[in-house]
């Protein structure tokens, strides 16, 4: 008779009434998966010599162990990472290369460790830790995915904060009837008269009346803001003292209307329908000191560079010409525009950078390097370009437009990204001037209104002021 099989002692000290078979473990391909059951022959309290901790509160998910390995980024300390893994898990672990693919914890007994091992992942559910990536910073190596949030775009008010009625403000593309002085005085040509409006106290003063046989075609303040030049329909150029409303000088020479004027420090340039540009010097008794001939049609745009060395002129012949102080011939002839060039602006931020805008058949703002004559950029605005002005506070440019959208646009330079598009005029926005502090522009149109817009930040603070001087809300008649 065979003897009964000997029971092998396992050395386990089991509770009374529990056999070794009651403790069952499930395995898949030899890997440990966990406890399937822990049974007891009775419903009484069961004791065990094994402690199984609760993992639910340990927040191990924050360590990103289940994420796909991220690509090694330039500048990361890969050698240090391998050394750390080797010290923690052994040299074989550090040299093991994963086969690829997303691995779920426990899905395979030989699952390769993720490269996200020891990379702390931001936990949005718990309180902030003093060792979180946001505090460690971008150089810690733990937060390479974290980037600085983009700066919100500057907000530009979409409506004018002031509107002035301007009766008889002409709807004529070739005239320049609005200018803002450095002493905060606005000059506007209305019919045969020039009116001055103080932005400090809203006081309106009538500067002059040219009479029934003449008319105002252009106005331009000196840089100091004490004298103003007036171009007339009869071709005269008059200079007035703005504080005393007294005429100082009258200069002739042009055969027909003088539609554009431009002062530098001491010279006044005037452009006319007679296609000529005259340079006037008040210290000289003659009407003009030089005559510049180059345009084949009416001159409608004139601007001196900020250093007084160059004069840019635009005409109805689609030409943009650049003159210097010492030559009677243009040093540059820029002919890429396909319509009249009235809008001209020199950058106050970069020497030799010139912007120009074309009329209805062109619609483009073009940028030029006047040192070599190269065109730097061209942007189709979709509408006739009537005026351009460069902000002195930030590197941005504002343009006003006519056919067909009558809008005002603010652009960043050099990207030419749109900062704002402003609407309100129901006719071509033919006139543009900027306040002395560079924050506010005034626009005029054939709808006989002047509108004031806060579009640029101040030099010191990024937030533009809400008002200037004693301006009030609503509409005011300028005379």
Automatic annotation (TrEMBL):
Entry-linked InterPro entries: Cdc20/Fizzy, WD40/YVTN_repeat-like_dom_sf, WD40_CDC20-Fz, WD40_repeat_CS, WD40_repeat_dom_sf, WD40_rpt
CDD domains: WD40
WD repeat segments: 209-250, 292-333, 334-378, 422-455
Pathway: Protein modification; protein ubiquitination
Single GO BP term: protein ubiquitination
Keywords linked to the UniProt accession: Cell cycle, Cell division, Mitosis, Repeat, WD repeat
Stored Pfam families: WD40_CDC20-Fz
PROSITE patterns named among the record's database cross-references: WD_REPEATS_1 (PS00678), WD_REPEATS_2 (PS50082), WD_REPEATS_REGION (PS50294)
Any one GO molecular-function label of the UniProt entry: ubiquitin ligase activator activity
Compositionally skewed regions (Polar residues) per UniProt: 104-115
Any single Gene Ontology cellular-component annotation: anaphase-promoting complex
Family (UniProt): Belongs to the WD repeat CDC20/Fizzy family.
Protein name: CDC20/Fizzy WD40 domain-containing protein
Organism: Cannabis sativa (Hemp)
């Amino acid at each position: 008779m065979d003897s009964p099989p000997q029971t092998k002692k396992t050395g386990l000290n089991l509770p009374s009434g529990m056999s070794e078979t009651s403790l069952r473990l499930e395995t898949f391909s030899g890997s440990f998966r966990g406890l399937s059951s822990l049974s007891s022959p009775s419903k009484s309290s069961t004791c065990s010599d094994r402690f199984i901790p609760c993992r639910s509160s340990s927040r191990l998910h924050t360590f990103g162990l289940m994420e796909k390995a991220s690509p090694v980024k330039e500048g990361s300390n890969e050698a240090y990472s391998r050394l750390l893994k080797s010290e923690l898990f052994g040299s074989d672990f550090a040299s093991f290369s994963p086969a690829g693919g997303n691995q779920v914890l426990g899905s395979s007994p030989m699952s390769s460790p993720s490269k996200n091992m020891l990379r702390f992942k931001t936990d949005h559910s718990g309180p902030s830790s003093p060792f979180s990536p946001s505090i460690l910073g971008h150089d810690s190596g733990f937060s390479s995915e974290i980037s600085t949030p983009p700066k919100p775009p500057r907000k530009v008010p979409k409506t004018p904060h002031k509107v002035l009625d301007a009766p008889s403000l002409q709807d004529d593309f070739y005239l320049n009837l609005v200018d803002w002085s450095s002493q905060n005085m606005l000059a506007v040509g209305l019919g045969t008269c020039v009116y001055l409006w103080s932005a400090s106290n809203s006081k309106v003063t009538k500067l002059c009346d040219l009479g029934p046989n003449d008319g105002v075609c252009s106005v331009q303040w000196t840089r100091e803001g004490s004298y103003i030049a007036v171009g007339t329909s009869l071709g005269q150029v008059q200079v007035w003292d703005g504080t005393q409303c007294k005429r100082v000088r009258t200069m002739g020479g042009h055969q027909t209307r003088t539609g554009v004027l431009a002062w530098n420090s001491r010279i006044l340039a005037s452009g006319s329908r007679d296609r000529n540009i005259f340079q006037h010097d008040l210290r000289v008794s003659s009407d003009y000191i030089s005559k510049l001939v180059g345009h084949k049609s009416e001159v409608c745009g004139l601007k001196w560079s900020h250093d007084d060395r160059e004069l840019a002129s635009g005409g109805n012949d689609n030409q943009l010409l650049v003159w210097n102080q010492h030559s009677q011939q243009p040093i540059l002839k820029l002919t890429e525009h396909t319509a009249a060039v009235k809008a001209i602006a020199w950058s106050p931020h970069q020497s030799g950078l010139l912007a120009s805008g074309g009329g209805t058949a062109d619609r483009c703002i073009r940028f030029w390097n006047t040192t070599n004559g190269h065109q730097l950029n061209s942007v189709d605005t979709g509408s006739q370009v009537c005026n351009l002005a460069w902000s002195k506070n930030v590197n941005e440019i504002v343009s006003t437009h006519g056919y067909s959208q009558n809008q005002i646009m603010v652009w960043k330079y050099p990207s030419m990204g749109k900062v704002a598009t402003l609407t309100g005029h129901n006719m071509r926005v033919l006139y543009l001037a900027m306040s002395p502090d560079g924050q506010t522009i005034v626009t005029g149109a054939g709808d006989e209104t002047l509108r004031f817009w806060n579009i640029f930040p101040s030099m010191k603070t990024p937030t533009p002021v809400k008002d200037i001087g004693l301006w009030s809300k609503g509409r005011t008649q300028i005379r």
